TrEMBL record:
Keywords assigned by UniProt, alphabetized: Decarboxylase, Lyase, Pyridoxal phosphate
Domain (PDXDC1/PDXD2 second) ranges: 382-488
Residues covered by the PDXDC1-like third domain: 494-599
Protein name: Pyridoxal-dependent decarboxylase domain-containing protein 1
Record-linked SUPFAM superfamilies: PLP-dependent transferases (SSF53383)
Species whose genome carries this gene: Pan troglodytes
Co-factor(s): pyridoxal 5'-phosphate
GO biological process: carboxylic acid metabolic process
Coiled coil: none
Amino acid sequence: SDSSALIADPTLAEMGKNLKEAVKMLEDSQTRTEEENGKKLVSGDIPGPLQGSGQDMVSILQLVQNLMHGDEDEEPQSPRNKVIGLGHSLGAYISTLDKEKLRKLTTRILSDTTLWLCRIFRYENGCAYFHEEEREGLAKICRLAIHSRYEDFVVDGFNVLYNKKPVIYLSAAARPGLGQYLCNQLGLPFPCLCRVPCNTMFGSQHQMDVAFLEKLIKDDIERGRLPLLLVANAGTAAVGHTDKIGRLKELCEQYGIWLHVEGVNLATLALGYVSSSVLAAAKCDSMTMTPGPWLGLPAVPAVTLYKHDDPALTLVAGLTSNKPTDKLRALPLWLSLQYLGLDGFVERIKHACQLVSRSVWSLMLLGDMRLPFFQVEDELSSPVVVFRFFQELPGSDPVFKAVPVPNMTPSAVGRERHSCDALNRWLGEQLKQLVPAGGLTVMDLEAEGTCLRFSPLMTAAVLGTRGEDVDQLVACIESKLPVLCCTLQLREEFKQEVEATAGLLYVDDPNWPGIGVVRYEHANDDKSSLKSDPEGEKIHAGLLKKLNELESDLTFKIGPEYKSMKSCLYVGMASDDVDAAELVETIVATAREIEENSRLLENMTEVVRKGIQEAQVELQKASEERLLEEGVLRQIPVVGSVLNWFSPVQALQKGRTFNLTAGSLESTEPIYVYKAQGAGVTLPPTPSGSRTKQRLPGQKPFKRSLRGSDALSETSSVSHIEDLEKVERLSGGLEQITLEASSTEGHPGAPSPQHTDQTEAFQKGVPHPEDDHPQVEGPESLR
């Protein structure tokens, strides 16, 4: 209330009051509770018709709150965001003033902001152009350069350019799509662009090759072209490298070329210490900066600072405007700079550089981190760190290392990239989930592969990154290092085991970060087809279920193959030493078992159907034979009973049993011939060949035996296993002796055939005809 009383303009005082109330209302999450509503609103995002009568401002702001936050808890807005909101509100209000007041106010805002920025970034006697699209400033600068070099361009237009084509030079490390954007905005053909390659032998591989650039300029001059403009980088978009701007400035002055500089490293011009390469950018013809992300300010325009003495050409190029409303683009930044002050502005940039320095030294302390780092400049001059996990040479230890790797052949780069890109993508996703305030990004470089980038200058102010977040980020990297190393070392071994195993096919999937991908090839698998295989999907689904039941430390999943629709088994990452041979053996054995069981179930229906048909034929034959044996008279109800009373028929029952294993009908006659003797039951012998590897107590599947310091415990465990095997062999021998003694008891000689048959019948578990109540199977029981 005291601050509002100091504002003489009642409109400004009311605007500040309304803005404060509106922000407070949007931040209040309890203005509408479920008790007041009775129930939740259904689909507040569904658009509806415009109401005939107007609504009050409270209802409108409540609708805005629901659209912004929904059911989520609203986060309190920072004061900087409130300043930006006030700036846009002021801009709408100022645009309604009379022309004289509007011109006076907008001129003051533009001149103040331009003066402050030029002094902060050491750009003397410069002008400023504020724009929403980051690339728009460079397009305006290109128009200014064209008007400056082609005096008759305003009159003759394209004919002047046709006679002497302009050439715009871009670095190969420039932002993607920048050249196409410039050609579309300027109406120039693509041959007017010249892409300058980066260094290949000396220096950074992301810096422009100055010697090659000079050769290109000379070639264009000889062909009758006009070298117009050069775009240099003070911090490339990908890795934050700075070109040799001092050398490029000399080259541009020699051939009359406009030098434009852009990049994140321009922010370090506001610091007390600046590297010589970045400091040279203060002498360039123009440069584009993005203070919004640097300061964490949303909706703040980008700024292009330039030097030119002819106001008429700048007006024609669109860098200046006579419209006062165009000058109001600087209003949000004008308010923000006053709110932060010079110290606050510099402190945010310095904080980002300190986070980079802290991350670099923390990564150096890791045991597997080696120099040289990816940064060429000092830590305070390049607020970008790019690194990746890789294995430099076959057989060497995997390490974290900054890129690019010096003196590495293309073949070595290809092998290293192929094996580690997926691991780096996995690591990046894990770090983004564990430390969201770190602002880590994953990117793909053409030569180095997948890398991780830490650029706090673009993210720290927005995410609120602190030094503790950097320490947590490095700690997470260190905790993930054993998993990465173990997985990378097991990949080749797993591949060799799969390729040496019949029935398994190794699938090379570059996007899978685990140990590997394998597919089981069943008997009916069409190897030439790329379509989905239902039978294979069923086998792999059962295989996944069986492997998950083993409760190992490995994770498994199934999905389509990388290049086809066939189902595959994906083996996840390993945190400990894994026996690849046992893993592959378990996979193929389990898959074969599932395939055999599935095939048995599929064939069971056909086997049973044929067995029923054979049983019907056999029953028909048995009925005919019985009719011939007993005669027709015995089939008459009354006569047959009388005949059977005086002359009973001793007919044997001929039953049939269906053997599912053999798929055939067998006679049940032996069942009624012999009688079981004794009460003991002999169990079927256990197969001696087991696929399951003997493990120590508490040892999980697929783990290798202990080595090194655990040799003593391993020896004792193995000795224990050997003792168990001896006891089993001894028990088996005693059991065999007991069975032989019981079989010869009371018969000093060889057992009689009758006894032998009885013993066999007993072992089969069938009754003997001498039982009091024999169980007879007839045709009805067979049905």
